[in-house]
Design a protein that fits this description.
Elements (H helix, E strand, L loop, with lengths): L1 H28 L10 H14 L4 E7 L2 H8 L1 H19 L3 E7 L2 E6 L8 H8 L3 E3 L2 E3 L3 E7 L8 H16 L3 H4 L2
C-alpha cells in the first residue's frame, strides 16, 4: 500500500515543480533583464488594472533622444549604463505610487496613481537629462517625455492614454535642442 501511495505522489510533485518553473519563466518574461523594470506585457497587465481603480492616474511615455549616437560614440556598454540609469531615475521619480516599465529599446513608460505625490514633471525632465558617467567618460543624456492624465480622456483606458502620451512625446522630441540642430 505504501508503494502505491508513494507512486501517486511522484506525478503530483512533478506537476508542482513544472508549475513552479512556468511561473518563474512568466515572471522573468515580464521583467527586463537589464533594468529590472516590467516589460511591455508586464506593464500592460498592471497598468490596465490600476486604470480601473485610479481614474486620475498619470500615464507617461519616455524616449531617449539620440540613443543610437550614444551606442555608436561610447559603445553598447555605455548605452546599457544609460538605460540602467534611466530606469533607476524613473523608478525613483515614480516613488511608491508608480509602476515604471521598459517597453523596448530606449522607450520607457510609467503609470502613477497619485501624480501629486511625485516631484513633478519638471523634476523628471531634469533627472532624465542628467549625464551618466561610464568608464570615466561623461555620456550626455536627453529624453522626450509625453504625459497623459486619464481624467483628460473621455473614457480612461491604457490604449488612448499611451496614444495621447505618444503624441505629446513626439511633439516634445521635435523641440529638444539636440534634435533641432540636425
Amino acid at each position: 500500500m505504501d508503494l502505491i501511495a508513494g507512486a501517486s505522489v511522484l506525478p503530483v510533485l512533478g506537476w508542482a515543480i513544472h508549475g513552479s518553473l512556468l511561473a518563474r519563466r512568466l515572471t522573468a518574461a515580464r521583467r527586463d533583464p537589464l533594468t529590472g523594470l516590467r516589460t511591455r506585457a508586464g506593464f500592460t497587465a498592471r497598468a490596465e488594472h490600476l486604470i480601473s481603480r485610479h481614474p486620475s492616474a498619470l500615464v507617461l511615455l519616455i524616449d531617449l533622444d539620440d540613443f543610437k549616437a550614444i551606442n555608436d560614440t561610447h559603445g553598447h556598454l555605455a548605452g546599457d549604463a544609460v538605460l540602467t540609469a534611466t530606469a533607476a531615475r524613473l523608478t525613483a521619480w515614480c516613488g511608491r505610487t508608480g509602476i515604471p516599465a521598459r517597453l523596448g529599446g530606449d522607450e520607457f513608460a510609467a503609470i502613477v496613481t497619485h501624480p501629486a505625490d511625485t516631484p513633478g514633471l519638471p523634476a523628471l525632465h531634469t533627472a532624465l537629462h542628467t549625464s551618466v558617467t561610464h568608464d570615466g567618460a561623461v555620456v550626455p543624456v536627453a529624453a522626450s517625455i509625453g504625459a497623459c492624465h486619464l481624467a483628460d480622456l473621455p473614457t480612461p483606458n491604457l490604449t488612448d492614454a499611451l496614444s495621447a502620451a505618444d503624441a505629446q512625446m513626439y511633439q516634445a522630441k521635435g523641440h529638444t535642442r539636440r534634435n533641432t540642430q540636425r
